[in-house]
Design brief:
The structure holds 2 protein chains of 2 kinds. Chain A is an all-beta fold. Chain A has no helices and 11 strands. Classes of the chains: A mainly beta, B mainly beta.
Chain lengths: ~120, ~110
């Protein structure tokens, strides 16, 4: 079955280190998204991509970067991890080949990141 | 995207219908209403979406008022496994979803 996976599921790192979170989907979806969720808050969009070589900033993109070299993967990099980036990170994908207004986003299981 | 307003929390008895309201008074004519839910510690899960007409699928029903300023998600026979945070989202910008705080639904035995 097609799916979307994230790795690692849990990560502890130190302030200042570079961290990369992986997201892999097997639906062949063009659109991929990264969100973060902090305790007591909804999801906030970090970065998104509409296809290979396309990346865009979301509402909370400072300190994060993404690259899209193939359809299946959108890794999220924290250039220099900060304690404020301790959060749960969710990746999602959707199929853009139909009306974008009717797209369904499929979410991964999340990565819990702790920055000490 | 239109702003949505949802109650912070609701309770529902197991086996009864759960009716979750959402106000989206600034929604544009071509914007859909989407509902997702997030069970504790899991990624959000799509439930249903609609534009004008009421919609039903295997998970839920979506009732949209005629003026489209509000909607109600109905879980016809709530179970304990329906305990989750339910997000109502009005419109999307090129496929991007803007999540609010959602409604925390507790289904009680």
């Amino acid at each position: 079955d097609a799916e979307i996976t994230q790795s690692p599921r849990h990560k502890i790192t130190e302030t200042g280190r570079q961290v990369t979170l992986a997201c892999h989907q097997t639906w062949n979806h063009n659109n991929m998204f990264w969100y973060r969720q902090d305790l007591g808050h909804g999801l906030r969009l970090i970065h998104y991509s509409y296809g290979v070589q396309d990346t865009n900033k979301g509402e909370v993109s400072d300190g994060y970067s993404v690259s899209r070299s193939n359809t299946e993967d959108l890794p999220l990099t924290l250039e220099s991890a900060a304690s404020s980036q301790t959060s749960v990170y969710f990746c999602a994908s959707s199929d853009s080949r139909r009306d974008y207004r009717t797209e369904t986003q499929y979410f991964g299981p999340g990565t819990r990141l702790l920055v000490l | 995207d239109a702003k949505t307003t949802q109650p912070t929390s609701m309770d529902c008895a197991e086996g009864r219908a759960a009716n979750l309201p959402c106000n989206h008074s600034t929604i544009s004519g071509n914007e859909y209403v989407y509902w997702y839910r997030q069970i504790h510690s899991q990624g959000p899960q799509y439930i249903i979406h609609g534009l004008k007409n009421n919609e039903t699928n295997e998970m839920a029903s979506l009732i949209i008022t005629e003026d489209r300023k509000s909607s109600t998600l109905i879980l016809p026979h709530a179970t304990l496994r329906d305990t989750a945070v339910y997000y109502c989202i009005a419109g999307n910008q090129g496929g991007k979803l803007i999540f609010g705080q959602g409604t925390e639904l507790s289904v009680k035995p």
